[in-house]
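Hi everyone, sorry if this is the wrong subforum. Our group has a chain we'd like a structural model of before ordering constructs, and none of us has done structure prediction before. Sequence below.
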Amino acid sequence: MIYNEKNSLKIDNHFGGKGTIEIFKHVSKGDLDTIDMVANVVLPKGSSIGYHLHDKDAEIYNIVRGKGLFTDENKKEHIVGPNDCCVIKKGQSHGIENVGDEDLEFIAILF
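Answer:
Right subforum, don't worry. Here is the predicted structure as tokens:
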């Protein structure tokens, strides 16, 4: 099966973050037994996803391009870029901000 989502979902101030992000969902809850979402996420320069808790699920970010500031469960900040993988376990919190000069793009897997 091939998923190629052409339409995007634009969200303003996601989880209290800055700016508008764009999500291209490829897999949604119900498509697979153990995966709730697979999506390409684009954060334009200066935008962010606010710090939030994953109390019911876990998430992985695989950074494709750009430069981000990832805040982990201990509120420690990490610079992330292409091929970095951010793992958020169930019960942990996190956030991410685009701190580069181009779009920050990553693949998000929610499970």
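For your construct planning: The first strand starts at residue 9 and ends at 12. The two ends are 19 Å apart (CA to CA).
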